[in-house]
Fold this protein.
Amino acid sequence: MDFRFSQDALDLADGARSFLDGANPPERLRSEDGRDSLWPQLAALGLLGVLAPESAGGLGLHDDSFVLIAEAAGRVCLPEPLVALAAISVPAVLATYPDEVGGLVRGDHVSPPVHPLAPYVHDADKADAFIIAGPDALYGVPSSKARLTPVKSIDPNRNLFRVEADLTDDLKVGGAGLCAVMAVRGATYTAAQLLGLTDAMIQMATDYAKEREQFGQPIGGFQAIKHHLASAQVKLEFARPVVYRAAASLDVDSIARQQVHAAHAKIAANEAARFASEVAIQVHGAMGYTFEVDLHYFMKRAWALETIWGDTAHHSMIINQAVIDGGLDIGPGTTFDAA
Amino acid sequence: MDFRFSQDALDLADGARSFLDGANPPERLRSEDGRDSLWPQLAALGLLGVLAPESAGGLGLHDDSFVLIAEAAGRVCLPEPLVALAAISVPAVLATYPDEVGGLVRGDHVSPPVHPLAPYVHDADKADAFIIAGPDALYGVPSSKARLTPVKSIDPNRNLFRVEADLTDDLKVGGAGLCAVMAVRGATYTAAQLLGLTDAMIQMATDYAKEREQFGQPIGGFQAIKHHLASAQVKLEFARPVVYRAAASLDVDSIARQQVHAAHAKIAANEAARFASEVAIQVHGAMGYTFEVDLHYFMKRAWALETIWGDTAHHSMIINQAVIDGGLDIGPGTTFDAA
Amino acid sequence: MMDLAYTDAHRAFRAEVRDWMAAHVPKSPLKTLECEEGFNQHREWERVLKSGNWGMVTWPKEFGGRGVDLIEWLIFEEEYYGADAPLRVSQNGIFLLGPTLMEFGTPEQKARFLPPMAAGDEIWAQGWSEPGAGSDMAGIRTKAIRDGDHYVINGQKTWSSRAPFADWCFGLFRTDPESEKHRGLSMILFPLDSEGVTIRPIAQLDGNPGFAEIFFDNVRVPVENLLGEEGKGWNIAMATAGFERGLMLRSPARFQAAAKRLVELYRKKQDTARPAARDLVLQAWQDAEAYALSTYNTASRIMAGGKIGAEASCNKIFWSELDRMMHRTGLSLLGAEAELIGDGAEAAGRWLDGYMFSLAGPIYAGTNEIQRNIIAERVLGLPRI
Amino acid sequence: MMDLAYTDAHRAFRAEVRDWMAAHVPKSPLKTLECEEGFNQHREWERVLKSGNWGMVTWPKEFGGRGVDLIEWLIFEEEYYGADAPLRVSQNGIFLLGPTLMEFGTPEQKARFLPPMAAGDEIWAQGWSEPGAGSDMAGIRTKAIRDGDHYVINGQKTWSSRAPFADWCFGLFRTDPESEKHRGLSMILFPLDSEGVTIRPIAQLDGNPGFAEIFFDNVRVPVENLLGEEGKGWNIAMATAGFERGLMLRSPARFQAAAKRLVELYRKKQDTARPAARDLVLQAWQDAEAYALSTYNTASRIMAGGKIGAEASCNKIFWSELDRMMHRTGLSLLGAEAELIGDGAEAAGRWLDGYMFSLAGPIYAGTNEIQRNIIAERVLGLPRI
């Protein structure tokens, strides 16, 4: 029992964070061109293959090594769908057509996940194929057989399409169990990105509060501003271990337990991000309401991620079914598996 | 259309407030003796008969004249059940046995109301009779036929008894409509008392914050304290007109509209009082947690009144039935009757 | 006994507004007034309103109004928002500068400025803030120095709402260059096409230029455009800010209309909503109703000669936090569609647009932090440290 | 990969605690430890615990502990609260002074004080606050002046929890009468029956004497009762306050047990609950779980040589606001019964007692306002003004 990240996981995440901080500064978000220009480097650094076996060119690591990378991607508001591909598509392909994983890891093939809870797909126009969760099976759909309808997101860095296809038997690649896994992975890793976004928004607002002067002093000296930001920080601090546990649980727990853990993670991260975004804009004042500062990119990404892969209402029903209807007890045996 | 109190109502309330402030200082709450010692004066001042006709020795006024008196009674945390008797029992007796009203107005007879939403009666051991709302009729029950079981309230100035009786046909004094009226009056006037309690708690905490020094200044100078109290004040300011409208509505509106207005009033007053009590104790620090200051009497009264005559859950169901299920539109015609 | 019944005259007035709006409100929504096309559509709508003599119903007839009382104004607003009529592009003029002119303007100024304001012929921007003076207006540094019968303005304003497309602007300037803080400021009115004025639009959350920076390079404004006394601008601005937080700017009807839409949305989505959403929807309904009740009370008091005091700060906190809660709740009912904007996402877009707009509520017209300070200090009497 | 499985030793330890508690926890609840009878019942329970060697499991065996690690401590707590065992009347000693003695005490002091503390033979009160020094401990004025081999104490403490019935007390005193603020303070231990000590109990919300004022009139305490260096009391007190906000005082198991009771209450009352109550119940469940996860993480870090920093302030805010929300929600499910206490109102009384207790949470151990300042300044680096 040691609920900490391994030094290897921390080192890997540090590396990813340094790369992302350098390669995806806020300026990059302001341009709508080259939204996928980092793909070659993300692949070259092995980030697409963290969860893929070494035999497929991956690092052969576990989810508790990728969750910090997902958080780092959220923290810089990365436009590339690194997290969806590396943390949802790679495991899905590994479970169905393991020979195809190498292509995904190298970045040669792009097969984003599509799910009723995440029906709009970023950069779907650049995909070779889609992994689509149907009502009771998983489907692999080449892009030629998918219908894309462009839709517009409030997040200018999400180039969204509604993806639909006739889910015929010949496209079936796995059972309903894999769809459930996809949903759990989607919720957990979206939550991880929301942690990063929350962290970034608190940091931006804190930096602004240190600089901006009103009434003859930095506004960060006013207790009202301090307390807003401290409250956001508390929400972040207590969402983090919940998300990390959900990620660690992906490798070891039953799907039923994973669902509860992922639901808790998504709810906690949603709440932290929504709260931090409202605090961050309030601290920024009118400035936060504009394109003059970069906060709005992070807020808009957070609003988008809050609703996909299950919003709070959806996940709250999962917790309700487990706890109120199902009698899942709190405490040892629920916190961690084997008590 | 003039949504203000008449000068007469304001003058009457001013008089009542002066009397109550003088006659019921906080010191009186500290003694458990003589909890009903003000009865003769309350009767002599005519406060028991504000809503009774002049022919019965009353003032013949309307509810918008009594609601401010109820608020003033809440503000001093009055132990005597003035509000229940003058605003619930008097109208109930007036509607059933008008000849008996004079006795109530003079304070010769004490007939408290009993309702499934308010089953515990303060000073029931001093009552001559009870007005009991049954499942589908109103009953007049002499104290000799009632069974009293003492129960203990957290509020040391509520000398509570559970009141039960065999509701036989010979005791029936009115129909179900009068029970509904009783519930609406109970909710509205309990809300009015909660306004007064809220006001008192904000005032106590404000006074304390001006005096108490920490870190070399009055704690009321710290923005965190200021903002807590300001938020409580906002809740109070926006609960007030809702309660006043509910009271005014008692004289003119259909029972269905009264129910929605009373529900809204009770929910708003519950919320203001709960919020103010938590703010007030936080501002007082450890001192508020003790019998060293008088805050606790007001908090405990507020906790008690929050739950009787319908708690927030109960009234929220009434609003839900009207608005979500019943399609009651917001706006003109709902705010005030005739649009 | 309180008189809570509308008079026959009120009912007739309501019927008149309702009928006129039913006949004239555009059938499909206008574009946002923060883009040029939408601005022009909204200006056109103001002219349609004027054709029905609805520009600003409470103003005297000589200034383009109908001279109705505040209860009738509330009735007008209820019917206006009930008809889903467009937002008022003229609001800086009719709600803020207009009342200020009534109080402080010369007869000539009133006659010159009020009628075209009510008619939508002159749309006003406001010029309060400067880069170093947001909530803290005492930090204003832009100078307007008397030179003969003109003021010569140099400096910069920011967060000027409507400025990208408006005709005129009112603002606070330092007329005494030696003065500090609240002293030596004056309120001056100027056309936005004056020589030496440069306008740089600022993109707001939705990408539209909701505000602008205004740069002044030796802009000459005739002295008759001074509003009130020279050097007394702070008092005048405080009066205007009072109007901003007071009765007019955010009439309850607006929030009641949003609460009504929220109830309708909830009815459609209740199968997938979490239980708390129902309570939030009902709270929105109740709070919008409470705000209306409070406003009727304030209107009644003003009609009887009363004034709005520091409770204006309570109003501003209440409606801005209600508006944000209401739109946050609406968004929470939309699931994965909540992030969509543009064509084909009208319902969703309306909640998202409304949410973004609501985020400005706790910031502008004095942040809610400032309002809470005001309540604590002026209503409760807590010490200023 | 993270190792999130309990070891066989952990499982065996858990089974041992569970069995022992099942056999020994009193079948009916004790009276509150804030009254004399209840205090004695709780002291007796400490002695029963001692008979099973459960006084303070993490302490070394020589001081009455079992020398187990922090994961085992968490397991102990889970089983302790899972068995609904009594509150720890010894908590000032075992959770606050104990760890401080381990860090700053002499070998003699440890040997003298720790074993009777773990055994419940000596129950400790604390003496931080003074009438003019609550959250602001630098305002301490009570003096302890060296006189030969004694300190002579004069002055007054207040809010001393457990003092009405406890045996010993630790507190912060000004040993340098010329000093100001944080300097010149020392931590001193003294028996509450010392000559010159007068104890005035203070009635708390529920009417019981939860605290006391302590008056000192030339109280002589031997110098060997000085903890740490003279004049370094502030640092020692900060360390103690860190323990207070840190891992031990409020173990997650306590809140998990309350969340479990809340779910059970909700199941009984759900027909009359408002919808939002369900979401609050689930939030309580999730937050108690989140607090447990956070504590397991902190325990893992400490076991690997880490320390608790300013995140202790996040903990304190989180558990205290969770506790209040949880009990407020419980009360809201009880309807008109919520105000009842005493016999025949056990379920209701428990929620009301818990609510009252929870109201102290955001106040003691440094108010939540102070904790938010600490987070803003030390975690986020915002300026101290």
About this structure: The first helix of chain C runs from residue 8 to 24.
